[in-house]
Known about the structure:
- With about 475 residues, the protein is an alpha/beta fold.
- About 35% of the residues lie in helices and about 10% in strands.
- The chain has helices at about 10-15, 20-40, 95-105, 150-155, 170-180, 210-220, 265-280, 295-310, 330-340, 345-355, 360-385, 410-415, 420-425, 455-465, and strands at about 65-70, 110-115, 160-165, 180-185, 205-210, 250-255, 285-290, 390-395, 430-435, 440-450.
Amino acid sequence: MELNQLTAHELLAKLKSGSITPGAIRDSLYARIRSVDSKINAYVRTDSVKKSDPKADPQGLLNGLPITVKDNICTEGLNTECCSKILQGFRPPYEATVISKLKIAGAEIFPLKANMDEFAFGSSTENSYFGPTHNPWNLECVPGGSSGGSAAAVASDEAIWALGSDTGGSIRQPASFCGVVGLKPTYGRVSRFGLIAFASSLDQIGPITKDVQDAAILTQIISGYDPNDSTSVSQSVPDYTKSLANGIKGLKIGIPKEYFVEGMDAEVKLIIEEAINKLKNLGASSKQVSLPHTEYAVPVYYIIATAEASSNLARFDGVQYGFRAKSDNLIQMYKQTRAEGFGAEAKRRIILGTFALSHGYFDAYYLRALKVRTLIKQDFDRAFNDFDCIVAPTSPSAAFKIGERTQDPLKMYLSDIYTISVNLAGIPAISIPCGFTKKGLPVGLQVMAKAFDEEMLFRVAHAFEQNTQWHKLKPKL
Length: 477
């Protein structure tokens, strides 16, 4: 088996023993990228690095193990463009806290950034300035989004593991579509400093990995309080790997009835039901639970998220950094820069958000959405009084065809119907592979837990993973 096919913890064991070097891992990754990325487009600017970096291999816990990073996480000295023309050529003068933590732990930041929907606006990675990413399991299908490049790179063995960001499902949904593990931590668990903001009250950085153990290792490294992030929570970070061996005997699992409704793909429903039965066979009990405000999650999200995006993206005007349109008139330069620099989906969300925040509509839309968001959070709070975790599909369908939903934004937005509530409530959730459709496309099982109880997620996910083979299957490229 090639080095690029191994999990991070398998490689760490080999690095520790001295049987391999970080350079050998990098060379294996570059060979794989040269072989398959022309089909997948998981990375951007692949022509910028021709061969392995000859610098000295770092030490520490991760012993120089490379990690792939989404293009909206600031990396000092490397372009960070959010896959948008308006940030063309931007190299941050600082790096994100998660990057600093990884370097301290001995990781090497892979010099190629992962493709994504522009500014994380999308569910398919079709909105990238660098072109769409293709699903490794079927090149005619999307990999999910917005962290589609990160998920596709891990699934196709072009990355050992990766960081993504999740605002409404942007880690979990592509993890589901690509048959890998994706975790959205509790809001405040992982610093957002250095993550180029989409919606500041929803964004969270998290891992995309080949198995649950890797997700536990990576989550522990990047978690913890950061004074540079005002929303960071000062809470101790447990050793997540210790929770992997606890099993799930006696756990109470809630099955939300609102997630099993008309519109859900019949094959996905059957696969999820089989996965729930597997958890019951492993000693857990399950019972239906109601999350009554679920139906409002999508409209609430697309008011709050677009409003915050409108505010956050106001800074991109061609003056301080990135792309600037040529004009002799300052006001005209602003207009042309934003008109030429932003893609269609970014413009749509900026316009929606600006409208929601405008005079006369703020109370009717944004303020009301915040109130309903509280009701959605309270639904989860009540559920976790009776249940240890909640289990549901990650997405109502498997990966759809490229171009299938680009002309129907509402249908595209509904791709995240099962993931959005988690961000609104600020709780953690994980997606793990749980089966395949008849067409050979992966399906993800989503496990949700109360705030700061990532240990529960790892416990349930690892128990399921150790008793199934879905995570070991590889796409044929």
